[in-house]
Amino acid sequence: MNFDLLIVDDDPQFQLLHRKLAEITEFHLKPDCVSDGLDAIEYIKLKSTEPKNNLLIFLDIYMEGIDGWEVLDYLESLNLPKRFKVILISSSVNSEDKKKAIKYHSVIEYIEKPLLANYLTMLKDCYLF
Question: From CA 78, how far away is CA 48, in angstroms rounded?
Answer without folding.
Answer: 8
